[in-house]
Amino acid sequence: MQSSASGRVKGWLIRGFGGLYNDLIGRRSHLGVAAVVFDPQGQVLLVRQSYGHRGWDLPGGGREPRESLEDALRRELREEIGIEIASSELRGVYYEPGVDQHHFAFRCEVRSGSIPQAKPPEILEVRYFPLSGLPRPINDFTLQRIEDARSKQALMVRVLGPRRWLE
């Protein structure tokens, strides 16, 4: 268990440096997962991060060594927003050459009774949003993964350029 002082320092580092903090401590995974979750009204679940642009994004994160993508997805959702998923379907694979990272987006169904709650220090807020009223700031990569999860097209594989933030 972390001491409260070390937890505060870790929180400060994450809020201040985000992904750079993970790079500095050698924790960045080259495989990332994200969950695209829709409620019965068709609203999408987003989290507001405490670092970087403090923007809205899909819940998810990096895979740990010897962890399957499915296990990473389940762990990240428990850690970030305290939910369990009933099912998941891979809807997109993305390669980000700038950081040599592959991202996998899954359309997920939340287990009945699982209620999302923000888990600091990384996540400040968690909410469902209508697709016609997505919050800002949000980046184009998040929008692409939501669109791909909604699509009836076959699995999409895309190479990403630099992310653009919509303020």
Briefly note the structural class of the backbone.
Answer: alpha+beta
Task: Assign the CATH topology.
Answer: Nucleoside Triphosphate Pyrophosphohydrolase
- Tally of individual domains: 1
Largest sheet: 5 strands, mixed
Number of helices: 4
What can you tell me about this protein's structure?
The chain has helices spanning 4-17, 19-24, 69-81, 140-150; strands spanning 31-37, 44-49, 56-57, 60-62, 85-96, 101-110, 123-129, 138-139, 156-159, 165-166. By secondary structure, the protein is an alpha+beta fold. The protein has a single domain, classed as Nucleoside Triphosphate Pyrophosphohydrolase. The strands form 3 sheets. It has a 5-stranded mixed beta sheet, with helices on both faces. Strands 3-2-7 form a 3-stranded antiparallel beta sheet, with no helix packed on it. The longest helix has 14 residues, at 4-17. The protein is globular, with a radius of gyration of 15 Å.
Entry keywords:
single chain, Nucleoside Triphosphate Pyrophosphohydrolase, three-stranded antiparallel β-sheet, 167 residues, alpha+beta, 4 helices, 33% strand, five-stranded mixed β-sheet, globular
Task: Annotate the secondary structure layout.
Blueprint: H1 4-17, H2 19-24, E1 31-37, E2 44-49, E3 56-57, E4 60-62, H3 69-81, E5 85-96, E6 101-110, E7 123-129, E8 138-139, H4 140-150, E9 156-159, E10 165-166
Parallel strand pairs: 1-6, 5-9
Antiparallel strand pairs: 1-4, 2-3, 2-7, 5-6, 8-10
